[in-house]
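During the first year of the project, the team set up a workflow for recording each protein of interest as an amino acid sequence followed immediately by a discrete structure-token representation. This format lets reviewers and collaborators read both layers of information side by side without switching files. As required by the reporting guidelines, we include two representative entries from the current panel. The first entry is reproduced here exactly as it appears in our internal archive.
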Amino acid sequence: MSHVLFSASMTTIMGGSMNKSELIEQLAVKKDLPIKRAEELVNLIFSSMGEAMVQGERIEIRGLGSFVIKEYGTYTGRNPKTGEPIKVSPKKLPFFKVGKELKEMVLG
């Protein structure tokens, strides 16, 4: 698996979090790019992925995982405040399924 975009310190993996600006910074440092260029690249990747998912496409990144859209039908839920039944409309939500290599890396 290429660790260009997804490598992180053990602190980040084991309890912290990595945000978009930290990802941009890592890309800039590891590939000796100006921050502005690294930001453009990360934004291009994210927007391309978002557009693909809006069109219903599945995105698979070997070693990382896959992004798919799951469709949920109408169902009866409950209002958490009143307990009254409510009709929940059908919806589509993004879903990430972790890949084998990433899963093994995180499990150690």
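The second entry, processed by the same pipeline in the following quarter, appears below.
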Amino acid sequence: MVEDVREGALVILHCGNPREKMWGEVLRLDEVGVVLRGLDLETVEDWLRQERAGAERLIGPTTFFVPMHRVLRIDLDQTGPAVESYGDRFLAACGRDVREALQEHPGNDA
């Protein structure tokens, strides 16, 4: 089954000017840009450890808009032969779908 880059997909977003990578769930994708609920790629590992430990929430996902002129590439967050996706790693570590955790707001006891 082929999964498309669309609303609800977990992706890694590569941006230019400035160069950065973000990971999260696509909330909207159109010719204007991408709305993502997620984190800077550099903080995903720390967030996963925090969620796995049930620690105080110091790092959390945010919702952000990236205009299309900054988007260089969008990769699906998929497990391959040599690497496990962030979504699958979260499920294995925390026992729940990462999309649930992405939609939680700081301060909620969900």
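For the second entry, the following points were noted during internal review. Residues 10-103 form one domain. Strands lie at 10-15, 20-29, 33-40, 62-67, 71-76. Both points are flagged for discussion at the upcoming steering committee meeting.
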